[in-house]
Amino acid sequence: MARTKKVVPVSFADAIKNYWLGYIDFEGSATRREYWYAWLFCLFVAFVSTFFFGRILSAIVSAIMFLPSRALAFRRFHDAGLSGWWYLGPLLFITIYSTIRNDMWTFMLDLDMLPTDLSYILLLFIIYVFALLIVFVQPSKLKGNKYRK
Length: 149
Prior knowledge:
Radius of gyration: 19 Å
Number of helices: 5
Order of helices and strands: HHHHH
Distance between the termini: 18 Å
Strand content: under 5%
Shape: globular
Structural class: mainly alpha
């Protein structure tokens, strides 16, 4: 009988350490606790940098935390038993939709059937955020998860 790996609880400090050590690690997995602790840390850093140091430092901090946050999201998807590429799929769709609505493409395509209102893009983005939230609150999938190491 195959043994199932247990989910080891992660402390807040360990989650932050894993966040920075996994700066460009898009493989492996991140537990729910690890993901939300790191998210809380990022929220705190963003708040402090914006409130106390202004927009310029906040933009720099956001740029520094962009890649590790994406890597963490990929690892969280893996922990839930999904491919990390699902994280980018809806964003790709929204980007393509926004691009083809641009006036540059209208001479090539008949886009009269597509709505021009930005509320549709906003609606797609809201659906995307709720889908992400559902994945991020899923428990770790231990059995049959090819992404867990």
